[in-house]
Design a protein that fits this description.
The protein has about 375 residues and is α/β, with parallel strands linked by helices. It has 2 domains: about 1-175 and about 350-365, 3-Layer(aba) Sandwich (Rossmann fold); about 195-350, Rossmann fold. The chain contains 14 helices and 15 strands. The strands form 3 sheets. The protein has a 7-stranded parallel β-sheet, with helices on both faces. The protein has a 6-stranded parallel β-sheet with strand order 12-11-10-13-14-15, with helices on both faces. Helix 1 links the parallel strand 1 (about 1-5) and strand 2. The radius of gyration is 21 Å and the shape is globular.
């Protein structure tokens, strides 16, 4: 079987969707079930598999690359990509990032990880929100199968996009551990470092995190906060101004992008992960932190409870005092840390790249 894949998210600096696709492709390179298939990766430039800051490895063997000229944007997706696909005799096409060409000559499987653009249109510009809602709704309606990453997102797809629940497959992704110690309840990390990793959206309440951290600093001046992610807020929030207003320059460091090696270093010296998001399809970075032996402070939402369960502390939206108390507990209370990390193995067992790749391949095979 020839499986076409939209691989443009593997170009440049892969983040969310790119890392999701990388995890699947790594497994498909190794598993026996995938050996009978050929994979054609479509992108506007050479797609690569992130490894570290000094090397990137092209996909070999059964993975061929079709470079389709263009910018990799909506016009490329809707006009240039279908024209290329028509000549390649595919059996099925996999779109891992929410949208797909409106017309394809082969069955479509699309992954839609969340529907924030429909649930909270105020977080997007009018044009961007309209584009996302229109294309994702059409993709979900046209697809032979829709893959999503949580039961919460399944419900949202049905309620907000009108997707057919019988064609939705919940397949949790795997989790990559960036630290070196693993989720051991006996792991004791020195220092007082808090870490946030992820693109910065309004829904993730970075200003509230900085304010809560400022409260921790008053009694623990040795504490430090690292924020990793590019600023994608709308309406625009100035993260640097928030840090300056709180008087935390030097104690709070904002990294718009880091290499994998730098990210490993940040995870290895952090004791607490903070992710104050009020809306996610799943929320992978708290799980990655947990796999590295770092418990999280999360906003108390249904999807946060579904993903992390008893392995996190929760606070209410806008509850700066509650967030600060939770941060302080995970920084300095070893009993609380041990309790949360003891719950980690049961939580992390649900997120396995081998199973995710096999189940996703099964959906592709049965959609032909």
């Amino acid at each position: 079987m020839r499986i076409g894949i939209d691989a443009r998210e593997l170009c440049g600096r892969p983040t969310g969707v790119g890392r999701y696709l990388s995890g699947l492709l790594r497994q498909w390179l190794q598993c026996d079930e995938a050996r009978q298939h050929q994979f054609v990766l479509y992108a506007h430039e050479i797609p690569v598999l992130p490894t570290d800051s000094s090397a990137r490895t092209l996909f070999p063997g059964r993975f061929t690359t079709q470079i389709v000229p263009g910018s990799g944007g909506t016009w490329w997706e809707q006009r240039r990509l279908p024209a290329s696909i028509r000549h390649d005799r595919l059996d099925v096409f996999f779109a891992p990032g929410y949208t797909a060409p409106l017309w394809l000559p082969v069955p479509l499987v699309v992954a839609i990880h969340d529907v924030s653009f429909a649930a909270h249109p105020e977080w997007f510009t009018a044009r961007e929100g309209l584009r996302r809602r229109f294309l994702s709704r059409r993709a979900a309606g046209a697809a032979a199968a829709v893959i999503t990453i949580s039961e919460f997102s399944r419900r949202e797809l049905v309620e907000r996009l009108g997707a057919d629940s019988l064609r939705i497959h919940v397949i949790p992704p795997g989790v990559d551990a960036f630290g070196t110690e693993g989720a051991s309840p006996r792991a004791v990390r020195p220092g007082a470092h808090v870490l946030y990793v992820g693109s910065i959206f309004n829904r993730r309440h970075i200003p509230d995190l900085v304010r809560a951290f400022s409260a921790v600093i008053r009694t623990h001046p040795e504490a430090r906060l690292d924020i990793v992610g590019d600023n994608r807020t709308w309406p625009r929030q100035s993260i640097g101004d928030v840090i300056d207003r709180e008087g935390q320059t030097g104690r709070v460091r904002w990294h718009q992008y880091v290499t994998d090696a730098e990210l490993v270093s940040l995870y290895s010296r952090s004791r607490v992960f903070a992710f104050l998001s009020e809306y996610e399809g799943l929320g992978l970075t708290p799980l990655e932190a947990l796999a590295a032996g770092i418990p999280s402070v999360l906003l108390d939402t249904p999807v946060a409870r579904e993903s992390c369960g008893a392995a996190a502390l929760y606070a209410g939206k806008g509850d700066i005092h509650g967030i600060a108390v939770a941060l302080e507990q995970l920084l300095f209370d070893e009993q609380v840390r041990r309790r949360l990390l003891a719950a980690a193995p049961d939580v992390l067992a649900r997120y396995n790249w081998t199973q995710a790749a096999r189940r996703t391949l099964g959906v592709l095979e049965t959609s032909v």
